[in-house]
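2024-03-11 09:14:02 INFO queue: dequeued item Ferritin-like metal-binding protein YciE, len=169
2024-03-11 09:14:02 INFO validating residues
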Amino acid sequence: MATADTTLNDWLRDAHAMEQQALTMLKGQESRLNSYPDLRQRISQHIRETERHAELIRACLERRNTDTSGLKDAGAKLTALGQSLSGIFVSDEVVKCSLANYTFEHMEIASYKMLMEAANVVGDSETERVCEEILAEEEAMASWLADHAGDVIRTFLQRSATDAESAKR
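2024-03-11 09:14:37 INFO prediction written
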């Protein structure tokens, strides 16, 4: 039976893989958001935050005398690559990506809440603090996406209507 410390280490490896997945997914979207400058800027900012999140989790693992899981990281990146590439083939990619990002942020929020509790149980206050810091940034990103979803939808629908009118001519 795994100890709480071993389980926390496993979950931290999962969190690192989750951040790797987020990075691959966000970087794949970023280059295709030229028509949505506010969204692109916020995605770019969150890429930098996510890179830092991955480093913070790596540091927690190292402090706990363990390392990331290359297999979990590779699997997460592969999953994200598939998600990113699938968006190229749909006309409403920006809407589907916004939906996926909002959903992913909430998975990260739940993960960091659970990690905070596990770190608390094993008495790892530094990991708990790191997870709390990351949690605040994930919540801020989810909130931003929710607050700007209407703008993305309106812009997308306006651009689609304009493109449809141009095609008729």
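2024-03-11 09:14:37 INFO annotate: The radius of gyration is 18 Å.
2024-03-11 09:14:38 INFO item closed
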